Amino acid sequence: MEGESSSSPSPSLSPLHPIHPPAYGNLITILSIDGGGIRGIIPSTILSFLESQLQELDGEDARLADYFDVIAGTSTGGLVTAMITAPDENNRPLFAAKDIKTFYLEHSPKIFPQKRGVFGSIRSMVKLLTGPKYNGKYLHRIIREKLGETRLGQTLTNVVIPTFDVKHLQPTIFSTYEVKKTPSLDARLSDICISTSAAPTYLPAYNFKNQYDEGSVREFNLVDGGVVANNPALVAISQVTKQVFAGKNQDLFPSKPMDYGRFLVISIGTGTAKVEMKYNATTAAKWGVLCWLMHGGSSPIVDVFTQASADMVDFHSSVFFQALHSQDNYLRIQDDTLCGTDASVDVSTRENLEKLVKIGESLLKKPVSRVNLETGVTEPIDNGDTNEHALKKFAKILSDERRLRQLKSPRQTGE
Questions:
Q1: d(C-alpha 371, C-alpha 379), whole Å
Q2: What's the DSSP call for residue 386?
Q3: What is the pTM for the complete model shown?
Q4: Whether 311 is catalytic
Q5: What are 253-261's contacts with CB under 8 Å, separation 24+?
Q6: How far is Cα 38 from Cα 15, in angstroms, rounded to an integer?
Q7: Which CA distances in Å does 73 have to 33, 81, 148, 229, 230?
Q8: Predicted confidence (pLDDT) per residue in 153-177, tens digit
Q9: Phi/psi zone of residue 328: left (φ > 0), alpha (ψ -120 to 50 degrees), beta?
Q10: 224 a catalytic residue
Q11: Could you report the per-residue pLDDT of 218-269, keeping only the tens digit for each?
């Protein structure tokens, strides 16, 4: 390999083989994708751009799963995570990033069928009083069709998908790191994705039984992972830290429990309506249960707990990356200027879906922003980089890291 440019593809450094463990590199690479229903179109647009940059560096066969040690996703982000890490018949990612947008555009109107007009609104209100807004049947069918019998332990890189157990009132984190120790978690990806997408008031809670270890069975009673971690970045970091702390995962040596400077994290949000300020205390003070569940075409209680969760994770992540002077290793891409139906998780009209695509594209052109630790407000950073430019930089870092690991690893593949 001597004499070759580090930015040009080469046969022995082909992205057709899984990424080598962090033990052979300088970084631990994490991709995190928020929950947000149909707004999953926004991160899918961002991910498509990132993958295209990796392909420019390493060839058209490059996929996101070839570069990240962990990919985490909640709710709609969990579905995206499964789609880009589940293996196809050639043991390559089932979906390229550019295909995810097409999936959303094609299937969202059937997952969230719209009831139009005044009578449609009345029917939605009545439905909300008697059960979830949507029955989830089409979502369940299409997820099972796409992911088949693939299980968590078969993903092409490590995966972390949060859910919440309504029977035991505690989080259930589906993590490939935990599968060896807790084989009952090695469930079908389809069951995991249906569970993490089961947003209260929108989709029904999900019950399934997972058979493992020659006949043992574990039952799950789960709802949307957004209840505990709509932004799963810290869950992913904690899963890696737990492995390092236990000292039993050779792939992560020689990391130390507090070696956070090695983390490189790209965290992608699905947008929020912060700037619109669509709620206020004067109005909310008059709300009863029904208004907290449904007001102005959205569900305030769901908006509040999912956004609070996402923001706190971004704040905590920013704190420790800035405290370690490694803030350049953390990139949060989020749009807080959504308004009206843009901010909805389920308005699946063709007009709104196409608008979300444009929002994702325009987000690439916006300046890189970072939370101000004093005010809690997200502000553009001083260097003037756009998200697009930052992703190009991160793509180069990811490519170089992968190349380094392949050169240093004694377990060379494809040679």
A1: 6
A2: B
A3: 0.91
A4: no
A5: 253/23, 254/23, 255/22, 255/28, 260/320, 260/321, 260/324, 260/326, 261/324, 261/326, 261/329
A6: 30
A7: 5, 6, 19, 9, 8
A8: 999 999 999 999 999 999 999 999 9
A9: alpha
A10: yes
A11: 999 999 999 999 999 999 999 998 888 877 787 876 666 556 789 999 999 9
Q: Cα–Cα distance between 273 and 341 in angstroms, integer?
A: 10
- In this structure, are residues 256 and 244 in contact, taking their beta carbons and an 8 Å threshold? yes
Q: Which of 58, 66, 186, 224 is catalytic?
A: 224
Please report the pLDDT score of residue 112 as a whole number.
Answer: 96
Of 315, 320, 327, nearest to 383 by C-alpha is 327
List, in sequence order, the alpha helices (H) in 86-136.
97-111, 117-130
In percent, the amount of the chain with pLDDT more than 90 equals: 63
Nearest partner of 189 among 161, 152, 139, judged by Cα = 152
Contact 385, 367 (CB under 8 A): yes
Residue 217 parent element (H or E) = strand 216-223
Contact at 8 Å (CB) between 175 and 186? no
Q: Which residue has the higher pLDDT, 395 or 282?
A: 395
Sign of CA dihedral 114, 118, 119, 121: positive
φ/ψ of 368, rounded to 5, equals -60, 135
Region class of 23: left (phi > 0), else alpha (psi between -120 and 50), else beta: alpha
What tokens appear for 355 in the block?
Answer: 């608008």
CA–CA dist 347, 341 (Å, integer)? 6
Residues linked to residue 172 through DSSP beta bridges, in sequence order? 163
Considering 32, 44, 48, 75, which one is annotated as catalytic? 75
Q: Please, which residues have CB within 8 angstroms of residue 372's CB and are 6 or more apart in sequence?
A: 378, 379
Predicted confidence at residue 413, as pLDDT, reads 47
Distance of CA 66 to the CA centre of its chain: 16
**Residue 183: both structure tokens together:** 């084989």
Count of C-beta atoms within a 10 Å radius of residue 362: 14
**Minimum mean pLDDT among 17-31, 57-71, 107-121, 138-152: which range?**
107-121
DSSP E strand stretches across 270-399: 330-333, 369-371, 378-380
Local structure of residue 212 (DSSP, 8 states): E
- Phi, psi of 25, rounded to the nearest 5 degrees: -130, -165
Residue 324's pLDDT is 80
The whole-number average pLDDT for the span 267-290 is: 87
Tally of CB atoms within 10 A around 113: 12
